[in-house]
Amino acid sequence: MRRRIPVAPAQHPHAPVKVVYKYYLEASDSEADSDGDESEGERECQTWVGSTEKWLCPVCQIHRPFSTREMLVFHLTRDHPQVKVKWRALPGKSSREVRWQVNLVVPDPAELESDSSISSDQEEDKEEEDEDQGRQEKEGEDEDEEEEVAGVCLDFPKAERLSEPPPSRQSITVPGEDVGMRPSLSSDEEDVKPFLLTTGGQKSYRGSLPMRYPSPPPPDQQLGPAAQWPYQDGQNSYSCRIGGPRIFDLVSRLPLDEFGVLSWAIVDREEGLFEMEDIRDEDKVMLALWNRWVFLKRPQFMAGEYIDGVKNFIDKYWRMIHRAAGWGALRTFLLSFLKDRYLTLPQVSEALKYYESKTGMDMWYQAAGGP
To answer: Where are the domains of the chain?
Structure first.
């Protein structure tokens, strides 16, 4: 039966937790001969005593302080099995308070290296055996296939076996061009050209909207992004994606200088978002933009008011939200904050109105024939 580990509510220690580290030294041969009367299990021990006021791991510094002692016990048992751990409950100032002491027996590094070398040797031997077995099976299959193919070829007449293979090259001609001046090309030798983006088909719905506001989206998609297919910036823009340009590609045009050497993490995360098939591209844009902002502003967001952090996020990326995501995607994104209790419903409405003031939604389609 699986044991449940309580994670809430947080139970901090009533008193500092005493931590005792013990390291047993190996006895030399001369000492072992001279101390023959003593028990063989007795060895010289070095002890170091410390204390902590939180449920911190005394072996590693990977995790933050745990909420309960049971979580720390589970972590030590699962992640540090080479360390012998023993807990002792000591009486506190009152009958309800309990002081804890944890004794840690640190293993000898030589023992750890020997154990790891033995396990690695066993794994290598097992891998070699598997490779040899797989190679033998593959050779046997190849021999069987050769025998089968040879048997089939003996039954074929010579005229069929010596038939010429079909031509692999096909000449491609274009109407209106001189065939004699154009070399023949095979279908597999043609260059794959990128999808060039043209500016044709773009329509502006600005109307009498002041120039300080961006152009609104089409009237039939007021809550969607303002960018129109093929989502380009100019004549030199192109897309090499198999299905053509996607609106999510607009996010990749934002600069990465502020992330420095960690810009690879942003690119890797955004490529992972693009591969998701159950999320709309507009929602992917919102997740990618939030990942960029919170990557550098997480401490400020967690320490201050959440609504202030959301407004700072809108201040930085409201233009890209308007262009590649839209009001509807922003609303869906903010409702996730409501679900996780970072924002209240009035704060979600406040953030949406703050975004509307940036884009001038109240003045859309005044002279563009829209609603």
So the answer is: 1-26+43-107, 219-363
